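User: Just a sanity check before I run the rest of the batch. Below are the structure tokens for the first item. I only need the designed sequence back.
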């Protein structure tokens, strides 16, 4: 059972975030359905953002798009963790991701103001 929770690794999840094609989106949506995979998903996102921050060229639009897609598609239980991830660094890669995440309105839908 423990081995099932560690599959997939953060690097393979990061690759899915990097490509974000249709099949990658389907894979990530399936991963988000299972709460046991939340840690792998968040670790993969951290890895993806870290690699983007280290890259010679920063693709802000792609990172914004990823933030928007995750904000729109991630279940409510992940919205706070996604925002925590987006706020974990002041690097422009994280800021671009955060911009897309905020624009998606996912956190507000998950936790509406009273």
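Assistant: Here's the designed sequence for the first item:
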């Amino acid at each position: 059972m423990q081995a099932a929770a560690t599959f997939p690794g953060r690097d393979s999840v990061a690759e899915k975030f990097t490509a974000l094609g249709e099949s990658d989106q389907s894979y990530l949506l399936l991963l988000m359905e299972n709460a046991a995979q939340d840690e792998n998903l968040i670790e993969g996102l951290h890895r993806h953002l870290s690699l983007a921050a280290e890259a010679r060229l920063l693709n802000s639009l792609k990172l914004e798009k990823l933030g928007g897609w995750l904000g729109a598609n991630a279940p409510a239980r992940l919205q706070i963790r996604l925002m925590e991830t987006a706020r974990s660094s002041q690097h422009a890669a994280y800021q671009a991701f955060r911009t897309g995440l905020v624009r998606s309105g996912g956190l507000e839908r998950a936790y509406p103001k009273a």
